[in-house]
Amino acid sequence: MAELCEKVLVDLTEHIKSWGRALGFQQVGICDVDLSRHEAHLQAWLDKGMHGEMQFMAEHGMKRARPDELLPGTLRVVSVRMDYLPPDAGFARNLKNREQAYISRYALGRDYHKLLRQRLKKLGEMIQQKISEFDLSYRPFVDSAPVLEHAVAEKAGLGWTGKHSLTINRQAGSWFFLGELFINLPLPVDQPVEEGCGSCTACITICPTGAIVAPYVVDARRCISYLTIEQKGAIPEEFRPLLGNRIYGCDDCQLVCPWNRYAQLTDEADFHPRQQLQGKTLLELFSWDEATFLKNTEGSPIRRIGHERWLRNIAVGLGNAPYSPDIVDALQRQRDANTEMVKEHIDWALAQQADKKPGQPDRQTLRLIRSVEKGLPRDA
């Protein structure tokens, strides 16, 4: 490929950032491909098994920290962010009402993977048109390959990595998606921004399951987002009461982050909550058969967990809800028609509901009563 002079590269970089904003990205940054300082942290995290069942995290080894190995010839990564916070998010009231299903805010609208990838592909095409005489190589990524997206965003100046491991921006908080465009041009790079978490540990303190085991270290095996989305089998019983009514993902660490007071509402209508998902009760969502689930989650990231895990998650939420004869009836009606995994969670939920039934001794008291009864004479 013919060499591009420095002035052409500088001008092209300005165009790339302008085109990116026109395509709906709130910020565009550029970094080189040296992420070597993250390799030791990544390896230690993998060695401790904190990736859980996410074998794809380990399969590619250090390729995540080496963009030029993932796409040979890559010299720069164009990192972009796009806001997704919808109007009237209703976080607090949705979490407070335990009969209502809580779905992470990123998942209520259209699947962001496709939208961002299409915009990044368009950005690549615009660059190609601008320098059509050169042999340009580029490839967009949005959670679709082994990429350390937060490390890239940090190096490209989009923000810093918070103690919850997400990217935080001073002007926009953390309610945004990230995407990357790998490219074989030696574009001028941006500089990282100053870290802004300081001594704040709000995200660590608020985490319902204690998944943030140390600043900047998240044990996925304890994370509600992992448990409700990535976990394929049964949710460990110790975590079930801690899920509350969260049936897909968790936003707690972002809700409490003080930088999110500066978060901007999204301009993308596709990220606005869908009517069939927003503000629904656990019972209503639990009543969906597989055909209804597939129809109502078409084009949504929720569809990827499948109907079985959907019911598993909601069963846990119903177990955590206040006692209701309607909940007990729904759980009992669904039980025999489901898989062994879902049955296990329904049985757990029924036991939780039984403990909350008015006038019913709690489970610990019942165990005490039964142990005393075993020691009494038959005619006592």
TrEMBL record:
Active site: 143 (proton donor)
Gene3D superfamilies, A to Z: 3.30.70.20
Keyword Ribosomal protein tagged: no
Co-factor(s): [4Fe-4S] cluster; cob(II)alamin
EC numbers for this chain: 1.17.99.6
Database matches in PROSITE patterns: 4FE4S_FER_1, 4FE4S_FER_2
Reaction it catalyzes: epoxyqueuosine(34) in tRNA + AH2 = queuosine(34) in tRNA + A + H2O
Pathway: tRNA modification; tRNA-queuosine biosynthesis
Region (Disordered): 353-380
Binding-site list for [4Fe-4S] cluster 1: 197, 200, 203, 257
Binding site for tRNA: 232
GO MF assignments: epoxyqueuosine reductase activity
Compartments, record wording: Cytoplasm
Binding site for [4Fe-4S] cluster 2: 207, 223, 250, 253
Cross-referenced InterPro entries: 4Fe4S_Fe-S-bd, 4Fe4S_Fe_S_CS, QueG, QueG_DUF1730
Highest taxon of the lineage: Bacteria
EC top class named in words: oxidoreductase
Binding site for cob(II)alamin: 64, 143, 161, 178, 225, 250-251
Record bears the keyword Disulfide bond: no
PANTHER family according to UniProt: EPOXYQUEUOSINE REDUCTASE (PTHR30002)
Subunit architecture: Monomer.
Similarity field: Belongs to the QueG family.
Protein name: Epoxyqueuosine reductase
Organism the protein comes from: Bowmanella yangjiangensis
Gene: queG
